[in-house]
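User: For documentation purposes, I need each entry recorded in a consistent format: the amino acid sequence on its own, followed directly by the corresponding structure tokens. There are two entries in this batch. Please keep commentary to a minimum and don't merge the entries.

Assistant: Recorded as requested. Entry 1:
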Amino acid sequence: NIIYLEVSGVVGHTTQLALTADLSGTYATIEGDVFLVDAPLQGKAALTIDENWTLSTSGLTLDGTPVSLDLNQDGGRISSVQMDIPNGLNYVPLFEIPEDIKLNGLRANWSWEGTWEQWVVNFDTKNTTLNYNGIAVPKLSCSGVWRWGTVPELSIPALSLETKTGKVTGALELKGESPTLYTNLEGGSNLSELFEFIETDLLINPMGFWKGENISLTQRFHSWENLSPLGNPIFKGDISLFEGSFALAGSNISFEKVEAELSIDGRNVEIDRCLLQSGENTAEVTGTIYNALETNGYPKVVLSLESPAISI
């Protein structure tokens, strides 16, 4: 829809046009691919058409966010400052966020550069807030590169995420023909926040705090065109628990005090040391909980328990 459009220039063997526009619901394709969908645009552009074409802009905004374009028939460069990324993808569909992932509020500086077939996106965000599937993230800072070619790759070497009760830092990669996410993280928070991301049927109402090192999370996805999870994530790392409490599923066993040093390898939890208190009973436990992180699995517990006194 045209709210305002002014065009001036020369039409001939070489066409040169200067455009000033205020458009709503803009649709556009470049080299046969969808470029804009229902986009509100304001600003100026210079267009040159001969055997090839070039397009450059000044003072252009997309839904109120500044955007710079310098394009030609082979590719070019696009950049923006502090764009609301999920909102921007509604208008410039570089990729689709899976329907089962609800993401909003993520703002970043970014640039797209390359050809229409092979390109690189650089992005950077500092202290932005976002909401992921109803989970509020008060502060996120990260920088990274997204390469799209024969085999795409996403790399975020610097990541800092502050939650309501703690902080996680590290790096992540998404790569491979069948894309797989790899993370390397450390940090800590309240256990309730950790179990918003990690599903387990073994523990009931886990409370307390955790601190982790060498934490890795591996998750496969269907394809680069369909970034929905394939199977369950694989979680590994060294975790310390303190000021903890929980109950065991399928039993009347509960512990009001838990301190533990855990090594997690895929689906299993190695208990290097665990102090448990249930009523008058205290015990120190070592051993392994097999399939502890296997959704809908059947955990197998092999433990060694030492206690100065057990009252039954």
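Entry 2:
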Amino acid sequence: MKVFSVAAVLTGALSIMAGANSTATLRVSRDATVSFNGIQCANDTVPCSSLRYGLDAKLLSFRGNRDYERILLGFDLPINQAKRCILHVPPPIEPTSGGYAVTVSVTDDFWDEQSVSGYTKKIDGSQLGSVNVTHAGGAGSLDISDACIKAKNYKLSLWVDTQDAMVSFNSLQSGSPHVFTLGFTF
């Protein structure tokens, strides 16, 4: 038994020394819809952008005339030495009437899932890229390696945006296996 354990450790060490890559699928660690708009909610008594949606079962992205919702994702990374990262966009909860574009930007990690709102989190960040989802129930993926490589403190936060179409996805709180994931190669 000891011989096998030592052999397994040596084999693992040699593969690391030889530069072998490993890829892990990481589920999003925290997520929220953040509203940035001038619309009033709760019987016109409070701005919608002051409301917290971090513990909702659904994530919503929409960019309309006055209504603007973004999805905020947080990933806990196993190590700070990523080689490649692919963000996997899950299929939407409800099929859209056609295709849509998903745009992803990197942002800071200074937010809490329970309390984040349009008042506590700025619309900031550097755009990483976009992917076109061409059919209503489809999913997409986007290479965000640069953001993973530059991530600090084992954390990565991303904004997810859709153009025109209102698109809803499952959040962690939904219990669904179909949530945002990250293919993390190290």
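Summary note for entry 2:
Residues 21-185 form a domain with the Jelly Rolls fold (CATH 2.60.120).
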